[in-house]
Write a structure and sequence with these properties.
The complex is a heterotetramer. By secondary structure, chain A is mainly α. Helices cover 81% and strands 0% of the residues of chain A. Chain A has one domain. Chain A is built from six helices and no strands. Chain C has a single domain, classed as SH3 type barrels, CATH 2.30.30. Classes of the chains: A mainly alpha, B alpha+beta, C alpha+beta, D mainly alpha.
């Protein structure tokens, strides 16, 4: 009797946790948040590196980290269940961001300040105001 | 003087004549006979005494471990109840702590591990 | 009868029944008298069944809990040394019935 | 003069214990993700910590017993093992995250990757405990700990909207990512109400030979010391909010947090962040190692004293050495420090009842604290906050683990 009782409660707990997991829309938003977070981190590193505020070792290591995280997230993207159209769009965006981070990483590695400045200026900037409103800081 | 054995004696800190810690009262041995009031004969310290107080699954494992690791150290150490000088926040025992077997493990750790490390 | 040595810490929380099998409580405290070098046991204090009450007794005497009346039924009973048969420490038995024990209200 | 020394015990306990890798990481992440909204969790944690630290000091002053010793004395042996085992395992995990913090600060400064620094950081902490005395730990940590004031300076230089920050001191419901919000709330509570702080503080009070006359000073020490830590954590949250939110950066890894001060102080900001992180975490490592040693030694009745030479308190010294080695091994496995930190803080939240409930029973037992037993205010405040932390942990940990 005891084992049957334990099996049913385990089933109950798992189902509660599973359905409370994230809906497809949330997963898409999550992937987008991760992409923006690392794109902006890369921009921030580039800007501070040009300003001479951070050492080269830190800048290259953090850009490598950004690259790894974006690759890991796109792998996770393939496993998440969501409409294919959204998966393709997100996949492209992640890939584009990763490419930009990679070029920035190479420019910093080569201490090529001019192209770093250009890359930082040109990459699409997150909308600061909307973000501040989202967390009631504006 | 009236004593509540669990509240005032069991698990209390034991110190020797100089006030150096000896351990805690892990066990109390009582001599029981049907026709006379029971008398407290010894206080007991040691890993084996502690292991015996655990619910069963742990008791056998720890007792086995104690025997394997250091049979001599885990031998319970008994102090005659007559040696109790003073009861209170700590219990003072008429013993020279440095040489008493209660500090067996402490001496073992000191001689075999700590004193081998420079600057100890 | 030869004296038998018992480990007092193993008596703790042991359930005590009287000769007819009625429950008298669990051994919570043992009172003794120290005269000179001798420590002589005088009585056994049997606490309530619930372990939590014994541990959290001081908290239950606090005003918020007192209002709930938790402290009221956390009473105990006292068995004199000659009322307790410890020949088998695993199963302490009273030598009298539960009602003959002194009731204690904390 | 002695009273002044006691106040330093409060300040050092709060620096070593309050602002460490846990509160730094959770405050920074919470600020970057939810702006000022989670300031209430820091305030709540600080209030609860003030009560708990005051109590552990009062217990030590009145009963001349430390928290661990009193727990063994009052609850007896088998029950004492539950908090002992729980707190020691938790302390090992928190020790690893603190050592991770020290290694990261060294990595920031030198560029050499962090697992290599683990043996160096652990050895330095061990050497200080091996050769130093309690007052060396106490004075050193509080002196160097003052560098953490850099976060307060940075917060002021960012001219935050103080009224909005004050509003955030009142609890509010999340507007987005509810599970992550509650996970951060419990991690912040777990980071601020660190049980090892209580063992360290009470042992410090006994080692400094406090007595009943010190009870009033103890109240000031606890309030001043812990509020000092609370202010630092709020400052970290504010700076993170104002630096990362407008840049759309959500913190996933420690590396990102290091950028926190650079926009305000340039290269100085980068190195000051590394120094503040390293020193705060190093102070916490010393406190955790000592706390575990106090907990075990006092629980089993061994000789315990940081002032004595290691050979005179052999098993006590062996325990803090083992704790440091254990922490180093976990870090050397290269586990992500932010992951260890967040999980150990959330687990602390879940373990709080095991650490705090026995403590509450002691503080209401006149046999230990004489007539200085708890007023109903401190009892209710602590019960409410510990209950909240436990509920939040039980709700948010499984979902966060499933989520991430």
């Amino acid at each position: 009797m005891r084992t049957r009782w334990r099996a049913s409660t385990a089933g109950l707990i798992l189902s509660v946790v599973a359905c409370a997991g994230k809906s497809a829309a949330e997963r898409i938003a999550e992937h987008d948040r991760v992409r923006v977070a690392w794109e902006e981190t890369a921009r921030f590193v580039g800007a501070e590196w040009i300003g001479g505020a951070i050492p080269d070792a830190y800048a290259t290591r953090t850009l490598d980290r950004a690259n790894e995280e974006l690759r890991a997230d796109s792998e996770k993207l393939q496993k998440d269940d969501m409409p294919d159209e959204a998966r393709a769009r997100l996949g492209e965006a992640l890939e584009a961001t990763r490419a930009r981070v990679d070029t920035l990483r190479l420019a910093v590695g080569a201490s090529d300040r001019a192209s770093v400045a250009r890359l930082v200026r040109d990459s699409p900037r997150a909308n600061a105001d909307s973000l501040l409103r989202q967390v009631a800081l504006r | 003087m009236d004593i509540a054995l669990v509240r005032d004696l069991l698990d209390k800190q034991l110190v020797d004549r100089e006030g150096e810690p000896l351990g805690r009262v892990d066990g109390i041995v009582m001599s029981y006979s049907a026709d006379a009031p029971p008398r407290i004969t010894h206080l007991e310290l040691g890993a084996q005494t502690l292991a015996r107080r655990l619910p069963n699954p742990f008791r056998s494992i720890l007792a086995w471990l104690g025997r394997r690791l250091s049979p001599r150290a885990s031998e319970p150490y008994r102090i005659e109840a007559e040696r109790i000088i003073q009861l209170g926040r700590v219990i003072k025992i008429d013993i020279d702590g440095a040489r008493s077997a209660a500090r067996e493990t402490e001496r073992w750790v000191r001689d075999h591990i700590i004193s081998r490390i420079p600057g100890s | 009868m030869a004296a038998q040595s018992i480990h007092l810490e193993l008596l703790l929380d042991r359930e005590v029944r009287d000769a007819s099998g009625r429950r008298a409580g669990r051994i919570e405290e043992i009172r003794a008298r120290k005269d000179g070098d001798e420590i002589i046991v005088e009585s056994y204090h049997l606490g309530p069944e619930a372990l939590l009450e014994r541990l959290a007794a001081p908290v239950f005497r606090l005003s918020p809990f007192r209002a709930l009346g938790l402290h009221k039924h956390a009473h105990g009973r006292r068995a004199q040394w000659d009322q307790m048969d410890l020949s088998n420490p695993e199963r302490p038995v009273l030598r009298c019935s539960v009602d003959e024990l002194v009731k204690l209200v904390r | 003069m002695k009273k002044l020394l006691e106040i330093t015990l409060g300040i050092v306990t709060s620096i070593g214990g309050f602002l460490e890798v846990g509160s730094l990481a959770t405050s920074a992440q919470a600020g970057a993700a939810f702006g000022f909204q989670l300031i209430w969790a820091i305030v709540l944690g600080t209030v609860c910590l003030i009560f708990l630290v005051e109590m552990s000091g009062r217990l030590a002053a009145v009963s001349k017993q430390t928290l661990a010793g009193a727990m063994r004395d009052r609850f007896g042996y088998p029950f004492f093992l539950v908090p002992l085992v729980a707190m020691s395992l938790l302390a090992l995990l928190v020790m690893a995250s603190e050592l991770g913090g020290v290694c990261l600060s060294l990595q920031l400064v030198t560029g050499i990757s962090f697992p290599w620094w683990a043996p160096v950081g652990a050895f330095a902490a061990w050497l200080l405990l091996w050769k130093g005395t309690f007052s060396v730990v106490e004075k050193g940590a509080s002196l160097f700990g003052l560098v953490t004031i850099v976060f307060v300076i940075a917060a002021f230089r960012l001219h935050p909207d103080w009224t909005r920050a004050a509003h955030a001191a009142l609890p509010s419901m999340p507007r987005h990512e509810a599970m992550r919000y509650w996970f951060f709330a419990v991690s912040i509570l777990g980071a601020s109400i660190a049980p090892y702080l209580l063992y360290f503080y009470s042992a410090g009070a006994v080692e400094d030979k406090w007595n009943e006359t010190d009870v009033p000073v103890n109240r000031i020490t606890a309030t001043l010391g812990m509020s000092f830590g609370g202010v630092l954590a709020v400052a970290v949250l504010i700076v993170a909010a104002l630096v990362f939110v407008p840049r759309g950066i959500r913190i996933e890894r420690f590396d990102q947090i290091a950028l926190m001060l650079t926009p305000i102080m340039g290269r100085w900001g980068f190195y000051l962040f590394a120094a503040a992180l390293g020193i705060a975490c190093f102070g916490a490592m010393l406190e955790i190692a000592l706390s575990v040693a106090y907990l075990v030694a006092q629980g089993f009745g061994w000789k315990w004293s940081e002032d004595a030479r290691p050979r005179d308190a052999a098993r006590f010294s062996l325990v803090y050495t083992a704790t440091l080695v254990g922490g180093a091994l976990i870090v050397m496995m290269g586990v992500d420090p932010l992951a260890i930190t967040l999980m150990s803080m959330a687990l602390t939240g879940a373990f709080l009842p095991i650490a705090i409930v026995p403590f509450l029973i002691l503080m209401n037992d006149s046999r230990f604290v004489g007539q200085h037993t708890n007023g109903w205010i401190s009892n209710t405040v602590v019960c409410a906050i510990v209950g909240l932390a436990f509920v939040l942990a039980v709700v948010s940990i499984p979902l966060e683990v499933m989520g991430s």
